[in-house]
TrEMBL record:
Superkingdom of source: Bacteria
Solute-binding protein family 3/N-terminal domain sequence ranges: 49-281
Protein name: Transporter substrate-binding domain-containing protein
Taxonomic lineage from the root: Bacteria, Bacillati, Actinomycetota, Actinomycetes, Streptosporangiales
Keyword annotations of the record: Signal
Signal peptide interval: 1-20
Pfam families: SBP_bac_3
Length: 301
């Protein structure tokens, strides 16, 4: 069952015009940020500030609601900076401008759902943050007992037009029909919002979307929809995780953020952040070193 959104609380850190009150000199003569669980690289310790950037258009991961910046990844980015004892300067960019903002040094880390792409590994470090998971969503109570793609033959299933979810369900439908199973009644909707509204109204037996959209619209539906079962992946990439990006010439910042992420995972805060936003099933800790199961085994997209 997806949970309601909870507004993030920004973790305050040191402020640059009061640095002397926020830092102390360690034995090596550099500046050390007070209350930092992980020591930041010297340039960040000197200013006490890190520039984080996002498009803020991906509910419930990171977005704006009633003028407030909220979401699981917003809270996670805030918590990571807090581990380094740093204050955050948040900046919003169009999705298409995020990478140039990072390379151009206007951003120190990008907070959004980024896959680990080979073509940019020479430019950025990739910090895994969660899995990108597909979710089967059903009306409250799951009256048709649809928990996975395996349960869809003979059922009425909605998909958003032009999405990976649509491609998967259509390909799966062809496969099961060829195997002699009942055909899925695939209903294509213009957008995710309309699709989940149809699920809540019980005009669809199930729908397929992303974990993020399921959590967000599930909260808006006030209990009218729920997850049919565990999340699954398309199998279209070798690694179904997504993460944050840091400039390649900043290995010390990357190492510090790796340590910060490990701290948040070990103390339970990381999992708690995602659970508050209905994303507890897609965390790194949920799957450990494994991966979510394939949505449509045997289907090639």
């Amino acid at each position: 069952m997806v949970s309601k959104r909870v507004l993030a609380v920004v973790v305050a850190g040191c402020i640059p015009f009061a640095l002397s009150a926020c830092t102390k000199a360690p034995a090596d003569g550099g500046e050390r940020v007070a209350n930092a669980a992980v020591q930041p690289p010297k340039p960040y310790a000197d200013t006490g500030v890190i520039n984080l950037c996002s498009a803020f258009t991906n509910p419930p991961r990171i977005y704006q609601h009633d003028g407030e910046r909220v979401g699981a990844e917003f809270e996670l980015g805030t918590a990571l900076a807090g581990e380094l004892g740093l204050k955050i300067n948040w900046t919003q960019y169009e999705s298409s401008g995020l990478l140039s903002g990072l390379i151009g040094k206007r951003c120190d880390m990008l907070i959004d759902e980024f896959a680990d792409r080979a073509e940019r590994r020479d430019k950025v470090w990739w910090l895994p943050s969660s899995y990108a998971v597909t979710q089967v969503v059903v009306p409250k109570g799951n009256p048709k007992q649809i928990h996975s793609f395996e349960d869809m033959p003979g059922k009425k299933v909605g998909v958003p037009d032009g999405t990976l979810a649509q491609d998967m369900v259509v390909a799966w439908n062809k496969k099961i029909v060829a195997e002699g199973k009942a055909q899925i009644d695939v209903v294509t909707l213009p957008n995710t919002r309309d699709m989940f509204q149809q699920v809540a109204a019980k005009n669809l037996d199930a729908a397929v979307g992303t974990d993020s959209s399921a959590a967000y619209y599930g909260a808006l539906a006030n209990g009218g929809i729920e997850s049919g079962g565990a999340g699954c992946t398309s199998g279209t990439t070798d690694d179904d995780r997504v993460g944050f990006l840091i400039r390649k010439e900043e290995p010390e910042l990357f190492k510090a953020m790796e340590k910060a992420m490990a701290n948040l995972r070990s103390n339970g805060r990381y999992q708690s952040i995602f659970e508050k936003h209905g994303l507890g099933s897609v965390t790194l800790d949920k799957f450990g070193d494994g991966k979510p199961p394939l949505c449509a085994p045997g289907v090639k997209l």
